[in-house]
Amino acid sequence: GEAHYDVVVVGSGGAGLTAAIQAGESGARVLIVEKMPVPGGNTLKASVGMNAAETRYQTLKGIRDSKALFYEETLKGGHGKNNTLLLHEFVEQAPQAVDWLAKHDIVLSDITITGGMSIDRTHRPADASAVGGYLVSGLLKNIHQRPDIEMMTDTSVSGIEYDDGRVTGVTLLNEQQESFRVQCHSVIVATGGFSANQKMVVSYRPDLAGFVTTNHPGATGSGIALLQSIGAGTVDMGEIQIHPTVEQTTSYLISESVRGGGAILVSQKGERFINEMDTRDKVSAKIIGLPEKSAWIVFDQQIREHNKAIETYLSRGFVVSADTPEALAEKTGMDATRLQATLACFNQVVANKQPDPFGRTTALRQPLSQRPFYAIRIAPGVHHTMGGVTINTHTGVLDENQQPLAGVFAAGEVVGGIHGGNRIGGNAVADIVIFGRVAGENAAKYALAHR
Length: 451
Ligand code: ADP
Fold this sequence. Notes:
This protein is of the alpha+beta class. It has 14 helices and 20 strands. The protein has helices at 14-25, 56-60, 67-77, 84-103, 131-144, 198-204, 222-228, 256-260, 280-288, 301-305, 309-316, 325-332, 336-352, 427-449, and strands at residues 7-10, 30-33, 50-51, 110-112, 122-124, 149-152, 156-163, 166-173, 179-183, 186-189, 234-235, 240-247, 252-253, 264-266, 295-300, 320-322, 373-385, 388-389, 396-398, 404-410. It has a 6-stranded mixed sheet with strand order 6-2-1-10-20-19, with helices on one face. Strands 12, 13, 14, 15, 16 and 17 form a 6-stranded antiparallel sheet that branches. The chain starts with 6 loop residues before the first strand and ends with a helix.
């Protein structure tokens, strides 16, 4: 007969994998369904880290932080549009989520900062490599150890059977386009965002036509359509984030941790033009306003040595390097005198703790003075879709009248509302771990009660 599970998880990014582990630990038999050949989704590309306030790793480093401040700064960064109930839950559960990862051998003990935050609260792997690959491989290791979790790749969920107010199963489509069904009592939709679906992006935001995207090709928004077809409501669909620092020939994202480590942005003229640690929406808008619609991210050897992601950029061949600022200016076509003056001024701000002319107050770590010097040409790219389906604080998917669809849960980028009008760097990884756990626990509870 047909295969039967308690919980089906749709999508194997950070939200889906976390949810599956939590559901397994809560006593459920779980199937993860992933449409791409490999698990990990867009989470594999997450670079900077996971935000959380009042964690033990902050304490160990002597960083004093508060949940209230984290809440306030996230809300301000989101233009006050965030769903405050979800945001409250998010901030409250963030430190436990960091501990939960540590218990699963995923240790985020290095800490940096992102735009819009006033305190170092972005947790990263101890060796300062990108967070995404580390997180996904750590979660997969846990999943492979659990006999109660199975996974199918190259298979997409094409329908959720929702009859008489309950989930009875899902329809799957394999690589050979064969359709089959499995039975389940609850479903967790963790299909990510729709940044790679240009038609869908442009339908909500015509101004984003022609922009590159940082996302993997699976970020098509199919989960939103799946849930809408059984009555789910959506929110903030036009809120789409463009990330300011994307290498345009490869669509490769230059991690915010480079600026968090002390890098600056300069125009083609060789001048700074913004507080680099402002929020992504503001930095992107300023770059688009430059005559070239692009800029350079400039850093030195010391920053390179503290950020493993930079090795990848070097090996991909799009980093310009030179032994002096003059030589860097020559190679990038900047004005050498202006670039030198820019660096001298910035270095004075850092060394003498003077007020920054652009109002930068964070990530003023050390002067940019250790050769070689580096530059990467960047411009904005479509990065994150803040909008998505509506959920309650238990991750229960809500219909248009705010009523939960029994047995239907969602977590991660497919969900709308948490980030409001602009997502803060480091809050997506936090989102998927925090609400992935909530979804796993509640979907398991629901399934076990309806066995
Ligand atoms: P999140 O960060 O919210 O976890 P990701 O983008 O990392 O989101 O992961 C979402 C995953 O869901 C991707 O691997 C994507 O290929 C997968 N996915 C999207 N739609 C479907 C679908 N209909 N069926 C199965 N998998 C899907």
